[in-house]
Amino acid sequence: MADKPYYTYVTSENNFPAGAGLASSASAFAALTLAGTAALGLSLSEKEQSSLARFGSGSACRSIPNGFVEWRTDPQSGESYAFSLASHDHWQLVDCITIISNQHKQIGSEAGMLTAWTSPFQEARVRDSARRMDRCRAAILNRDFAALAEVTELDSNMMHAVMMTSDPPLFYWHPGSLALMKAVKGWQREGIPVTYTLDAGPNVHVICTQNAVGEVLSRLGAFPDVIDVLQGMPAGPARLINGD
């Protein structure tokens, strides 16, 4: 894109486990996109940066814009990019990233995606995706936690159902993963605004509102099989720390 035949030595650091089902490639390739284009003097729009980051990792396109984002494909142009649905201060949610295993998973996300269509459930999952997206978008814009929890858990369960029924089957959940998911459902019945979702790995994203985070962290700290709990909150867009 810059028409410059440069080779670059890149050092990348992450503060959470890589290859453990936490989408570590998202932040890595978003950072590389922003730093690389700036170093080469390219002036790209946020949409263009998001689209470019996707070539490193699909998840990375969502790490470019601000706050709550939506990943969309334009049916006319075929462009695939993410854009901001609501700013980072729209809703004070906390992601309690619960580490059940920090080991590098044996089968990576890309390999899993290649077998998704061998599952008899994948077609139904894809066909229903627009409806789930509409529900998720509305829940975020309306700050409706109960609605967000319902669609978040459904989407996570459907994805793992596809992986478990693929050929060969992929079982990313650990016993501790399932136990924590069941515990979260119990906490909901107690009235705690909390939900769960899992990427392609055993670690559980336990999402709650800001006023419930103390109680949730206390319960997670006493939960068997939990190695560590990291906290994440909605944040602003990817940005250059040092432009020199």
Notable traits:
8 helices, two-stranded antiparallel ribbon, alpha+beta, four-stranded antiparallel β-sheet, 38% helix, Alpha-Beta Plaits, 15% strand, 244 residues
What would you say this structure looks like, in words?
The protein is α+β, with helices and mostly antiparallel strands and about 240 residues long. It has one domain (about 25-230): 2-Layer Sandwich (Alpha-Beta Plaits). It has helices at about 25-40, 45-55, 110-115, 120-125, 130-140, 145-165, 175-190, 215-220, and strands at about 70-75, 80-85, 95-100, 195-200, 205-210, 230. It has a four-stranded antiparallel sheet with strand order 4-5-3-6. Strands 1-2 form a two-stranded antiparallel sheet. Helix 1 packs across helix 2 (about 45-55) and helix 5 (about 130-140) runs antiparallel to helix 6. The two termini are about 20 Å apart.
